[in-house]
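Supplementary Data S3. Sequence and structure tokens for construct A.
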Amino acid sequence: QVQLVESGGGLVQSGGSLKLSCAASGYILRINAMAWYRQAPGKQRELVARIDRGDSADYADSVKGRFTISRDNTKTTLYLEMNSLEPEDTAVYYCNADTRTQNYWGQGTQVTVSS
């Protein structure tokens, strides 16, 4: 089992910044990749950014150049630094861990960007 706990969400004005954190515990050595997803009201959950074992990162086109995904040296905490936030970024942000055989999700953290 892998447990994920997100933090760092909140209310920010358009153009502002937030940094999300996701603390992983449990069978963390089995984690192949980690990612941030988001789900806005009335929309499907979408991939925002993903980082693999070798720290290679991929981003959704909508956040490229504005968001940065990273992990700490122990690979137990995942981050998402979000800059130049737009109202369209408003959503619940979820942390995800992939062990190849199973996907784990955090409880989500709300990010609201006001115009």
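Construct B, processed identically:
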Amino acid sequence: QVQLVESGGGLVQAGGSLRLSCAASGRTFYSYDMGWFRQTPGKEREFVAHISFSGTTTHYADSVSGRFTISTNSQKDMLYLQMNNLKPEDTAIYYCTADKGLYGRKWHETPPTMDYWGKGTLVTVSS
């Protein structure tokens, strides 16, 4: 059974930092691109960050570029999102995802249709 389980969410003040983690199990993700999306009530799930299966290429939404960093471990069973200088507008449920396809338009479709999703972790940034 494939599972992606997020952790690390919580309440933080504006300007603070959090590190999200995603534990992958049930299969190997060596050939999967991985990433993070987020969603707030009443809005579509939106792209946050992507990392290629090789770990050599990353992409970020403009709204988080320069503040967030995506990474994985060598075994590709852990995915991370380091979030610095958090803003109230970063408040959302953050979802870990894995997809067999290469990065492209699929990662920006509404709604996104990735192969695997976690159940999410809530990040709340207070002003």
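The first strand starts at residue 3 and ends at 7. The chain has a mean pLDDT of 94.
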